[in-house]
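Case study 2.
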Amino acid sequence: MSQTIADIKPAASAVRGTPPGRLQRFVLRHPMELILLLMYVLLGFTATGFLSLDNQLNVLRNVAVTGIIAFGMTLVIISGEIDLSVASLVAAAGCLCAWIIRQLTPPDVLEPSVAIVAVGVAATLGFGLLVGFVTGKLRQHIGVPTFITTLAMMAMLVGFSNLITDGTPIESFPDWFGQLGSGRWLGIPVPVYIFAVIFAAMHVVSRYTTFGREVYAAGGNLEAARLSGIDVWRTKTACLMLTSLFAAIGGIIYASLINSGNSTVAKGLELEVISAVIIGGVSLLGGRGAIWGTFIGVMFMGVLLNGMTLWGFNPFWQDVVRGALILLAVLLNQLVDRERH
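Prediction:
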């Protein structure tokens, strides 16, 4: 009898499956990194000039604003919330900065001073923080999900942008201000430096600080986090404020790029941001994800768009293909996550 049982045990173990090998574990942990690598190999062989330094810097410059905001959105979603107002805040921030500079510049002065521009930029960043703070407090005290409160905030910000611009672009920036969005330093676009600094800072904050651990705790199990002494609403509000601050930075970069405050910029940017975050493996249910994954998601979308442009895709088909591949990437992440657990 004992021999029969011993013979059965290996069979049962085989049914349950053996632990995955080292290669399989690597694939399960880094699916999007491998897909991005395959995209680079494919485009390197099929798209002329894709691997050139100028084109790679162009990809980074094009994804800079999306990535900056996506890093903040990563913490918001990990904490169990979401912010749909970021695109309208980008437009509002650019318009507000231009409006403040115009109001402070004397009529007989052709170009605003550095001090006036600095005041406009500082006030705009403060405005971004205020929007995030108000959103967080509404979520805390009224109890309405951020999906709803940020939709309302989005509508208000669109109205605010049109109100202060009267529906027309405000061209009040000095010529040198355009260097922020389109200039280069040591051959690298300025927005790429901002993108890199914020990526590094948010990676450190999310992985190596008490605040980062509180973000994961608040999104993973709200009640358990509260019972352990974490001020979950302060944490969630801080995440929303960071995202709004990054959206304001993005708005200033956009305004610098087009040298005006325009209420029509960044249409649909919130979908790009959220898509990049989800592609990067961040769970919409909260409690799981990483800044590194979001970086991969941002690069996936940037490389995809750049590759289709080099291939000569019809612009209308680009949206269709991009949407389909984003959906496939999200489904792949879900399947990999099930296998991993």
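The CA atoms of residues 97 and 122 lie 9 Å apart.
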